[in-house]
Specification:
Helix content is 47%, strand content 8%. It has 4 helices and 2 strands; from the N terminus they run H-H-E-H-H-E. Strands 1-2 form a two-stranded parallel ribbon. The two termini are 15 Å apart.
Length: 73
């Protein structure tokens, strides 16, 4: 993933914007997933978060929609 991001950024990123990787480990715990979401949300300027745990995606409920964020899980 880091290599793909580096390659994309060397070609101008996406629509001229650099891609940044911010990783958090929720350890498959809902409380940690919710905390990770809040932490990542406060660090990003784009409107997309990729998540690899479906439990966390479901636990967020309508929060991303209210925060005007797109979650891709």
């Amino acid at each position: 993933l880091r290599l793909a991001i580096s390659e994309a950024n060397s070609k101008g990123g996406i629509a001229g914007r650099e891609i940044n990787l911010i990783a958090e480990d929720d350890q498959y715990q809902i409380a940690k997933a919710l905390g990770a979401y809040q932490k990542i949300k406060s660090q990003i300027t784009a409107g997309v978060i990729f998540m690899s745990t479906y439990g966390a995606v479901f636990a967020l409920g309508k929060k991303p929609e209210q925060d005007n964020l797109l979650i891709i899980g």
